[in-house]
Amino acid sequence: AQSVTQLGSHVSVSEGALVLLRCNYSSSVPPYLFWYVQYPNQGLQLLLKYTTGATLVKGINGFEAEFKKSETSFHLTKPSAHMSDAAEYFCAVISKKSSGDKLTFGTGTRLAVRP
Amino acid sequence: GAGVSQSPRYKVTKRGQDVALRCDPISGHVSLYWYRQALGQGPEFLTYFNYEAQQDKSGLPNDRFSAERPEGSISTLTIQRTEQRDSAMYRCASREAGTDTQYFGPGTRLTVL
User: Fold this and answer.
1) What are the residue ranges in chain A where pLDDT is below 50?
2) Which residues in chain B are contacts of A49 at CB distance < 8 A?
3) Least crowded by CB within 10 Å, which of A14, A30, A40, A87?
4) Phi (first) and psi of residue B61, to 5 degrees
5) Considering CB atoms only, which of A42, A51, A103 is closest to B106?
6) In Å, what is the CA distance from B27 to each residue of A5, B1, B16, B33?
């Protein structure tokens, strides 16, 4: 079985400050990890993903995440928050061998950016 | 090109009525997924198809829920005898063969009164 835990359902940062959204996963086989963003009244949009290879992955809008197997983590970061980053962020995992490529999502973190 | 589309975007129905939710995937995408998202939660898997074959329906909560994709393109998720607990956002995603990324549609917000 696979699962995802996102610590902090709400995170608030000042514009220009570091963004750190936490994600820990559980998987019995090597995972594929994803971060999706949901803007109001829109669908889920892929920010970035880790499948194999380099553990530091870069995504759209200046976001990046690092896969740390020893910590079972895939935290999302951005050096400097922008007002347009305010949205809900979901971490998700696929365990390729066991789950038929279905995504298991965390409960989401809502990011607020203060002026 | 066009993304995943879903219709209707909003559906309000009375308890006991049947509803049909439609998903039109990205052209050429082999796999199609349905998820349900309750308020304050992440999306939860319902079912998925490769072409017209339903590969996994383990997430369908009970036999009131069914899905089909008869020609390997458009899919319909049907909920019979709706209940208030069925109120949620229903999301569809599609994926191209040989890739890992699922592309999501805007969702259908279902409200059962």
Assistant:
1) none
2) 100-101
3) A40
4) -70, -30
5) A42
6) 33, 9, 34, 14
